[in-house]
Amino acid sequence: MTAAIPPQMIFVNLPSIDIARARAFYAGLGFAFDERFCGPDTLMVSVSDAIHLMILDRERFAGFSPRPVAPEGTVGALVCLSRTSAAEVDAFVERALAHGGTDNDNTQEMGDFMYGRSVSDPDGNVLEIMWMDVERAMKAWGVAA
């Protein structure tokens, strides 16, 4: 048995050209904001108690990066968020589309144990939304649980 890993948080930093538009998009998805860390060039989106998206205007984002920021229209990261069912994946995508997101037409289906879709926020940051039944997946892949 491995030692317990102490609780940690993750902050995923994403560039934006329009913080107000990003706020409207993520609010439309039902996420909360930690206003202590929000300002004209920054938006802290709370996905859960441990997961946060730091949406930064491109200039501020560049100030944190040791390398050039990926040009607009390119992808630098894929952020994958889980949901509790395939229906919740579809519901998330529909909310994203209703609030300015783009369907990336990249549905992933694996039998009856995994389903995922991909959307981009208005800045082109890719959000992969997925559901997986781990027990069924392990069985399908021939891996002991």
From TrEMBL:
One of its GO terms (molecular function) is lyase activity. It holds the Pfam family Glyoxalase. Gene3D superfamilies: 2,3-Dihydroxybiphenyl 1,2-Dioxygenase, domain 1 (3.10.180.10). The keyword 4Fe-4S does not apply. Coiled coil: none annotated. The keyword Lyase applies. Keywords: Lyase. This is Lactoylglutathione lyase. It comes from Rubellimicrobium roseum.
